[in-house]
Amino acid sequence: MAKATHPSLFLIYFISVLGSLTLANQQKTWCVAKPSSEQGTLLANLNYACSQVDCRVLQKSCSCFVPDNLINHASVAMNLYYHSKGRNHWNCYFGNSGLVVLTDPSYGSCIYG
């Protein structure tokens, strides 16, 4: 009589194999601010993200300072936060003002990563 495999071992194996396949096919994404976002929301997003991650790239004379406007700075900060948290879609929510995109928003020397 053959010994049955414990169901939980099978489940762990299945999850690990499925997880590997998902990661292998996962597309790179970025987080940016929705163009329709209110200025106050963008400012709150910028302040929150920069309280959690290093936003020095947004300082004057740094790579992502120009264009010097709120939607650009919020987008860079939101993406830094999103990236630092593992690029999970929920880390780009920002009260429904974040947008996960498939096209790299980098420009000039400002690399979104």
From TrEMBL:
Q: Which UniProt keywords apply?
A: Signal
Location of the X8 domain = 29-112
Which positions carry the signal peptide feature in this UniProt record?
A: 1-24
The domain of life for this entry's organism is Eukaryota
Q: One Pfam annotation, family name?
A: X8
What is one GO cellular-component annotation here?
plasmodesma
From the Swiss-Prot or TrEMBL record, give the protein name. Answer: Glucan endo-1,3-beta-D-glucosidase-like
